[in-house]
Amino acid sequence: MSLLSDILTFNKEFVANQAYLPYQTESKFPEKNVVMVTCMDARLVELSQKSLNLSNGDVKVIKNAGAVISHPFGSVMRSLIVAVYELKADEIIIMGHKDCGMSQVDTTSIAQHMIERGVSEKDLKMLQYAGVNLDSWLNGFEDVFESVSHDVSMVQNHPLLPKDVPVHGLVINPETGALSLVVDGYETLKG
Hints:
191 residues; alpha/beta; Beta-carbonic Anhydrase, Chain A; 5-stranded mixed β-sheet; 5 strands; 38% helix; EC 4.2.1.1
């Protein structure tokens, strides 16, 4: 049986047994009025919310590789702006994690894997003509604390976000859920 078949079979039973009931929420708006950017690391699927005392329906969660906001007008920033203006998010959390794979990204290795899986060198070179530098586009970071601090600053200083939204920076230990505070958004607002 394939993964998709397993998922679809389980889902039929899930719905038939009304196993969704514990996950129903009052609305699509986050109960705790917060939106969080965190990493897509498999260890954080549940840990990223449970360790912050956030349940289903409490928070809007945006996940990507490394919890990195790579462009001030990219999709992550767009999602944060929509969350603040349309989905009642009054606070933002940027949460990276220790032992993040993005701190060890080797763009040469990724490009080689692309070629091994059928992407042509011609297509990779075409990126240059489109103005995309593969090394910088796929590059991660060396220090997760610096990365989180950088992203918090980008969000705090974004021209389209109101200046009264606290932007917090955290780093989570993916083994224990222990948090390290990088930026206290309340203190930043106090000036």
